[in-house]
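User: I'm new to structure prediction. If I give you an amino acid sequence, what do you actually give back? Let's try with this one:
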Amino acid sequence: MGRKIMLCCFDRVEMGGGTTYFYRMARWLSERGGRTIALVSEGSSVSENAGRMFREAGVEIVRFRYTVFGIRAEQRLKDYLTEDAEILNLQLSFENLYLSADLLRSLGLRSVRSVFYALFWGDVSPRLSLNVRLTRGFLRKLSLSGSFAVMDEIMRDIAANTYGLSREKISIIEPGLRTEGGEEGRERKRREGSFVISSLCRMDFPFKGYVLGLLSDFSELARVYPDMKLKIAGDGPGLPRLREEREKLPQDIQERVELLGELPYEELTPLIRESDVHVGMGTSMLDFVREGVLCINASAYQTENYSAGFFGEVNCLGGPVEGRFSEKVSEPERYRAFRFQELIRRVYQMPEAEYREKSRKALELYRTVYSIDHAMESLFVMPAAYRGSCGALTRTAMHALYLWHSFTIKRKEREECRS
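Assistant: Good question. You get back a string of structure tokens that encode the predicted 3D arrangement of the chain. For your 419 residues, that looks like this:
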């Protein structure tokens, strides 16, 4: 078998957990002589920071477009794909999986392995009733072929309950990061008169609306602890709302809240190293764990302050709290077990020895479960492969749905530009 090649589709490329995880996967493959191709929707944007990350990882960007007949890509895509290569069509949404598999089949590459790897709860939930009806059989075929993976048990429960799938047929592959190095439970190097609470996320509300709850909690904590500071990094459509909420705070507390905007992935180290505690979810939390920072696991789909606890004491990267997801999870109450204020106070008052021990346990869990080597090796040896075959009626319906999906994305981009 020739070199390994990985493909992944993006409707648009912007900073976020999925993009940075893709960057880590691409780097892993490049370091082993492989190649990564990002199929990016024609006319859509590639943010400056994400584009720089892709170039660093040696990612080739090839443009594609939706048509009534499926997906069409630049001709040069065929030049990148060779018959003796081991090609993994890895998609993070089932829309792009279906159409990219159709594209590869049209290029005569029928042996390509196509895998759907869902990285957040929205990817395995019913966004439209039409969506469920059209994709139930498609996702069942994926799971039966061994080509359906999710990042945790929560998502497996949601997918199984929503689409009537067998849990045993859905693989769990935890998101991977580099696990070499890292501290063994650091001494907290608190600066005199400063206790830094940090958070990092794409401001996509309500999915990551917990930063609003964190800001509210900080306003109460700041009245009691004059040395506390809050630093929030990230960008997205929810950032204006976060700024508005910050401006409602008393002036002396506003001055202790710093909104850093979008930070390039490679420039996170200063924020990580000055943090005493991090409140977050998803893979960004793992970057802080690796450097020995205690992390509070924020629950998803909330604008309040619910948490499952400290990472290291719980093994999850955030979970659903309410609304369309709660009924799909067997134990939704675990994601309401704590409040940010409570856990932040505990860290503030924690002896150094206890901080160091909790940090060590978190790093042990991180190294055991969240290894990029484990994740990538698991993806490249999935037991079977979806080949993109589907009935003509379903194919026509799916194409119509994805054309509408593409139209709504472009309309949203135009609205964002006008605003």
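You can read the tokens as a compact description of the fold. Here is one thing that stands out. The mean pLDDT is 83.
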